Amino acid sequence: MEPSVVLLREAQILLPSTKLVNKVAVITGGARGIGAAAAKLFAQNGAHVVIADILDDLGATLADSIGGRYIHCDVSKEADVESAVELALGWKGQLDIMFNNAGIPGPSGSITSLDMEKVQKLLSVNVLGYLHGIKYAAAAMIKTRKGGSIICTSSSAAIMGGLGGHAYTLSKESINGLVRSAACELGVHGIRVNCISPHGVPSEMLVNAFKEHLGKKDMQADDVSKIVGETGSLLRGRCATVEDVAQAALFLASEDSGFITAHNLVLDGGYTSACSTMSFIYQSS
């Protein structure tokens, strides 16, 4: 290999990533889990990041570490989401990326005994919270006339039944429909609207769900990863990580996906597309 080629490759390794250079992003639920991974990755790629969350200590500490901003934001409250967008505009004069990621698991159990107060709370966060985010992000992006990318975190539960509680499934399927309808209106302004549907990511939310349903209070993220990797993925032994989802968000936020809108990017190791329990039929006898 020519020495000049080697030097060029070494230089590329040393250079910081610039997929989002000088872009301004708001990430709801950005203090931990998927949101925190995305905040770090966006900042590494040159973005100015506003973390909007209700976990003040975690959010503020992370924002400081990446040169971003933090704002207390309960996405179920319209005014809080408006304030998060206004913070971005006041800080950098624009908003290029809105990552609607905040969400809660909600009640589980039989549909015949659902606690409707808990259902209303879930919908106020998982559905209205996303509607608030799209509403104010779109208004800001239209005003600055620079286009933009709006991303929403959905779930494999919106694709297959039995992967989440009834109310949670309802909320995630609603997000997919909202993304498609918003993309129809906002495309004429150069604003792309997409969603990501992760499956089996061993976040704190999923670990707690496994603890509850399996009755194992000492269960850890590694235990969940093993279970999902063995039974919930065609890529045996592999499950999605928060970093995998952050990479998907980076792709949808950047110009790498410049002609993609109204799309649901599924991160499930093929689980919702094919039946792995019948894989024995492909083996040689």
Automatic annotation (TrEMBL):
Keyword Oxidoreductase: yes
Presence of keyword Oxidoreductase: yes
Pfam families the UniProt entry points to: adh_short_C2
An example molecular function term from Gene Ontology annotations: oxidoreductase activity
InterPro entries registered for this protein in UniProt: NAD(P)-bd_dom_sf (IPR036291), SDR_fam (IPR002347)
Gene3D superfamilies per the UniProt record, alphabetical: NAD(P)-binding Rossmann-like Domain
Keywords in alphabetical order: Oxidoreductase
PANTHER family (UniProt xref): 3-OXOACYL-(ACYL-CARRIER-PROTEIN) REDUCTASE (AFU_ORTHOLOGUE AFUA_6G11210), SHORT-CHAIN DEHYDROGENASE REDUCTASE ATA1
Family: Belongs to the short-chain dehydrogenases/reductases (SDR) family.
Name of the protein in question: Uncharacterized protein
